[in-house]
Structures are given as C-alpha cells and as structure tokens.
Amino acid sequence: MANVTQQMARETEYSAANLMKDAGVDTERWNRVPDEATIERTVAAIEARNVRVILVDTAEEALGAVVNLLPEGAEIMNGYSTTLIEMGFDRVAKENRKGWQDYHAVITAENDTAKRHALRRKSVATEYFLSGVQAIAESGEIVGCDKTGSRMGAWPHAAAHLVLVSGVNKIVPTLDDALRRCREYCLPLENQRAQRAYGTGSFIGKHVILDNEVEEGRITLVLIRERLGY
C-alpha cells in the first residue's frame, strides 16, 4: 500500500494559497487549524451523529485510508475536490490498481453533452461517492455546497457509501459559522478557480447539511490534521 499512496500533499494551481489574494478572503478566521481539544471534541460530536471518523495526521495517511475504504472492483465516483487532488487521489484513480469501475473516467471521456449529463445524474447513486466538504461545525454537522448539485446529490441518500475528506481547517464553532464559511470563504475562492479554469464565475446553488445518518456505516469522514482544500 505504501507504494500506491506515497505522496505528500501537493499544492496545485487551484489550491487556496494561489487563489486567496484575488478572492479577498479572511484566512485568519476561516482557515485556522484548531487545537487538539477542539478536534477531539468535534470528532466525538460527528460520531454521535452516526458518521464514522478516521482521524489522520497527514495527506499521505488520508490517501491510504481512502484507498483502503474502496474495495477492489468497486463502482466509484468523485466530485471535484481540491482536497482529493492535494492528497493525490487523482493519480491513484488514474493508475487504478484496484480495478475500480470509475464513473469519473467514463464521464470525462464522453463527448456527447446530453449523454455526459445523464451519466452525471446516475453517478450520484454510485456504490462509493467521494467528496470534499466546505465546513464542519464543532457540534458535528457537516456542510457541503456547490453550484449545480452534481456532488451534493450523493450526500443525503443516493450514494450507497459516502466517503468525505477534509482538513481540520474546515472546523468552525457553530452551524451558522459553517454556513458563513461557505459564503464568505469557499465561494470567493471557488469563484476565482472557476474563472481561471472555465472563464466563468460561480455561485452557491445547493447546500446540504449532514445532521444525522440513519444507515449504519454509510458515511465515513477522513479528517486530516493539516490545512487542505478550501
């Protein structure tokens, strides 16, 4: 497994550090690494909501944990996630040593727009869906947002297994703070990324709050004691 996952977190063109200046965000407030007591309290609050937490120290360990969660030959899909890219999951998915049925690869290879949209709709109900998160409240709620819902659709129910990844920099005191982080920090940075990558801006079209999960073992959060993603 070490040969598969050995890679430290890498900064990319669209990492937060390369978007912050133009986005004009408050990094002191929204990109802090909390103390260990806060991290442990937050983990306990998340697990009380029936979400499994795997707490790791590094992006390399997080990548190993994610790979271990995905069985050989499993049907997988990932929404766009700076955290997953900084971890190196894109490289592992491309190598695909475990023979996953990768929806993302199928979608990106499809040139017909209508067929590609249809595949995206189906992909939210995949066996294993991977996603970053935008904020985590110390009280245990996990918040995600995006423009179209192509990621958020998998969160509440559609995906059989939901695997979330997050740096501890996403932890904020309250649910209200989590929603503010989406608007005041994540959106300006994503708007910068979208303009650079696609030549168009972004907006928040969908919010999802994971408050409590009914199905035992459905959701796992891999939480990393590093600043990753935004």
Offer a quick outline of the entry:
Helix content is 39%, strand content 19%. With 230 residues, it is of the alpha/beta class.
Plain-language structure description:
With 230 residues, this protein is α/β, with parallel strands linked by helices. Helices cover 39% and strands 19% of the residues. The chain has ten helices and ten strands. It has helices spanning 2-5, 20-23, 27-30, 36-47, 59-69, 82-87, 89-95, 103-109, 113-123, 175-198, and strands spanning 52-56, 75-78, 101-102, 128-132, 135-137, 142-146, 161-167, 171-172, 206-210, 219-224. Strands 1-10-7-4-2-3 form a six-stranded parallel sheet, with helices on both faces. A four-stranded mixed sheet has the order 8-5-6-9, with helices on both faces. Helix 8 runs antiparallel to helix 9. Mean pLDDT is 93; it is low at 1-8.
Strand order of the largest sheet: 1-10-7-4-2-3
Question: Beta-strand percentage?
Answer: 15-25%
Biggest β-sheet: count, sense, barrel? Answer: 6 strands, parallel
Instruction: Identify the overall geometry.
Output: globular
List strands and helices in order, with pairings.
Layout: H1 2-5, H2 20-23, H3 27-30, H4 36-47, E1 52-56, H5 59-69, E2 75-78, H6 82-87, H7 89-95, E3 101-102, H8 103-109, H9 113-123, E4 128-132, E5 135-137, E6 142-146, E7 161-167, E8 171-172, H10 175-198, E9 206-210, E10 219-224
Parallel strand pairs: 1-10, 2-3, 2-4, 4-7, 5-8, 7-10
Antiparallel strand pairs: 5-6, 6-9
